[in-house]
Amino acid sequence: MGRFKDSLAQEGLRAIAEIKRRSPSAGDLRPDADPAALAKAFQDSGAAAVSILVDERFGGTFEDLAAARAATTVPLLAKGFFDDQGDLLQARIAGADAALLLLRDVNDEQARLMLGGAHELGLDLVVEAHDAEELARAVALGAGIIGINARDLGTFEIDRRTQLSLVADAPRDRLIVAESAIGNRAQGAEAELAGADAILVGSTLMHADDPGAKLAELLARPLVKVCGLTRDEDVAAAADAGADLAGFVLAESPRRAEAPLPVPATMLSVAVCVGEATDAGTDLVQLYPEEDGHRARNGVLLREGETVAIVRDLPWLGSDARHWDEAAAVAGRILLAGGLGPENVRSAIEAVRPWAVDASRSLERSPGIKDHAKVRAFVEAARPEAVRA
To answer: What's the DSSP call for residue 256?
Structure first.
């Protein structure tokens, strides 16, 4: 396994931070971009790798790649329109650990030659697909790293729904990178829950005042869920505070919502159900078994019927001093709920290291009606200052 591939294979959602001065679809992004300074900033902010555009249409050169290599130890991806092994050799000499191969630009015979040439040079190859046919080709070619681009490079149109569907369909024995259209934590988490091992983010970072801080913000965990929402103004308050998940209780409850409310692009919607999952058009479903007419203690988080996280909660209207210790012992993604509020969520995070934290009753001024100051205090307590939205 190459250095680049090994970095992407680490636990949790990984990020490839991209450096590009301009884009054919968006024009100038950051004309004065310093690849050395940016690569170092991205390394310091948690990037698993850095992608360098080396094509003049993006304002890039192989000299940019060499400058980044001199300034950082993070694995580097050379990104351009490569179609022969000479391109790969040039990338390797400039310091790349990996290179991009666009399947739309090569036939299968050319792709096999490029994969073989990359192997001989000690380069990992990211084989990029945009549609189901290209994904099938990438799998058949034996590509170990497959990038799935939400952007059609012919029309520049973005289709995240199709991208997420392809990510979900990709074999789990490959490393999958969701490329393009990641602008916030919720969109990154959406790709993660669909099955992406990593996200590649470029334009969002190049537009940011502080690209390194923006990358840290995108990768910040835990995510924050505000549950028991029943009013549009409370959804807006949660979004403004920086919450990532909006929960709507569809079971019998003092905070039951008649239906999920619309949420902004910075949030994922979650239907909370007991006994049986309800198809309410939400991004996710938080499902608890039913016990004695109430929800059971623990549940699961579902995406299109598949479990993507474990929900660890308190007994119905009860408490348990061992709650955090038991949650910390569970493997995989944990959504930690039960008795959390602004005053204790930071301690819970340090004890459990959950993927997401969830609060409802502690953020209310009456059942189903949120106290906006408490919502903001909860989000601020759950997220370090450097990575708050």
So the answer is: B
In the residue annotation, 149 being an active-site residue is answered as: yes
Alpha-carbon distances, residue 275 vs 90, 203, 302 (angstroms):
58, 43, 13
Global pTM reads 0.93
Each residue's pLDDT tens digit, 302-318: 999 999 999 999 987 77
Whether 380 is catalytic: no
Query: Known catalytic residue: 18?
Result: yes
- The tokens describing 292, both together, are 């004695």
Query: Which domains does the chain show, CATH number per domain?
Result: 3-219 (3.20.20.70), 223-387 (3.20.20.70)
| Residue 259: partners with Cβ closer than 8 Å, 6 or more residues away | 248, 250, 280
Catalytic status, residue 107? no
Query: Please, what's the largest Cα pairwise distance for the chain?
Result: 68
Is 179 a catalytic site residue? yes
Give the tens place of pLDDT for each residue, 28-84.
Answer: 888 899 999 999 999 999 999 999 999 888 878 999 999 999 999 999 999 999 988
Distance from the Cα of residue 367 to its chain's centroid: 32
The residues near 83 (Cβ < 8 Å, ≥ 6 apart) are: 105, 106, 110, 114
Cis amide linkage into residue 24, ω under 30° from 0: no
Tokens of 45: 């902010």
Among 7, 23, 180, 360, the one annotated catalytic: 180
Q: Could you give the C-alpha distances from 118 to 79, 112, 145, 177, in angstroms and in order?
A: 14, 10, 13, 19
Residue 153 has pLDDT above 80, yes or no: no
Provide CB contacts within 8 A for 209, sequence distance 6+. Answer: none
> Among candidates 224, 221, 192, 190, which has minimal Cα distance to 357?
224
